[in-house]
Amino acid sequence: MALLGATLEVCEPGVVHIGLQCHERVMSHIPPAVHGGTVGMIADSAMGFAGLTLADVGEQGVTAEYKINFLAPAVGDQLIARGEVFKKGAKLTVATAEVVAVQPDGAEKKVAMSTATLIPL
Amino acid sequence: MALLGATLEVCEPGVVHIGLQCHERVMSHIPPAVHGGTVGMIADSAMGFAGLTLADVGEQGVTAEYKINFLAPAVGDQLIARGEVFKKGAKLTVATAEVVAVQPDGAEKKVAMSTATLIPL
Amino acid sequence: MALLGATLEVCEPGVVHIGLQCHERVMSHIPPAVHGGTVGMIADSAMGFAGLTLADVGEQGVTAEYKINFLAPAVGDQLIARGEVFKKGAKLTVATAEVVAVQPDGAEKKVAMSTATLIPL
Amino acid sequence: MALLGATLEVCEPGVVHIGLQCHERVMSHIPPAVHGGTVGMIADSAMGFAGLTLADVGEQGVTAEYKINFLAPAVGDQLIARGEVFKKGAKLTVATAEVVAVQPDGAEKKVAMSTATLIPL
């Protein structure tokens, strides 16, 4: 994440937001947008960290699987991945994320939505 | 992908393999493995490119969605994401990928499996 | 759906709810809960119909894919699958659904959440 | 499954095939094909049972999530869902299934592919 320049914007119980400036290094040329794999990476991280905010002390977790739908090209000044725990269970936790692209005028465009299954280790 | 140091290993009609050396920049510290988002990125790319190998001249495509299951920590000398078109259709194409980690003795360990839905633009 | 005894509870632009009484015919014996495939079927239908509520006259649509996470055994008096369009696009639409089990005291328990990719025909 | 008239065709370690005659009760009218939810149900069952064939005596399992891509209308004499364990792990197992429609001349048409995450109870 450091390699990408991602930043932690919000971290509360069950909720984590990750920001990513749309700088040149993370942009594809064709099309001129942030690569889907990068969008997936910040969504995945936002969901994984959201799950960790509800874990017991010393408990670790891993992502068993995630799924992401791309809704529009990831173009804007900044991406924000908003991860949230949908249901925490004893054996697995389900989290969701939406990724928006913040436009120069501050408006947000939905670019992706994702779900993940997290398991404690 | 250049940022990660990924390389194109195989590119045939319907099949694309992408390699990634497990160098320090793409490793997480806890656990000491390649980050799931990075594994997702090479799987996504292998599937997207596999779809493109069957596209008509001038046709472009985008990934509508992908899903990835993580099977084991991505630890080894190199990761290989093997993407393959499962079914090419007029309105959408489904591709799959498996990601393996090549061990020092050459053995391969399955680390992830993925499916993607691709649409022509 | 008729075979299962499912009913249309809500049908508004972008939103469709489907109900299913937890009668004996749709219950598994071990565990004593509505079969996951049946839960998937009402979630799938709620999302597909939610997409259709926003379609143009004469336009048909199909589900390209759906994914469902099971959160708890589907036990209760009735299941309700609440489908909603998350984003309608020209080439594809993404919908989500949550399935709840209504308990004898009226409380709702989350039993599944799902996402679907719909394409116009 | 009995309600649908599904039958167990193959049951070996790690592999389960489920058949479904395309009789009138499981067909939609528009389009004239087996309903996607029914296709999902036999795929889900084939994967779940495939996982159970590798379980220890007395161990039970549940499906944490599944995902299915629809590839073509489910039209034919019979559907066959071929479930297979892709990787069995201690905490979770990943299985895949493909569903084919057997045509009057015996040819098979791919109608769906699916993946599932199974957890032991």
From TrEMBL, chains A, B, C, D:
Domain (Thioesterase): residue spans on this chain: 34-103
Species per Swiss-Prot/TrEMBL record: Streptomyces boncukensis
Keyword entries, A-Z: Hydrolase
Protein name, entry field: PaaI family thioesterase
Gene Ontology MF terms: acyl-CoA hydrolase activity
Keyword Hydrolase: yes
Family matches, as InterPro entries: HotDog_dom_sf, PAAI_dom, Thioestr_dom
Top-rank lineage group of the source organism: Bacteria
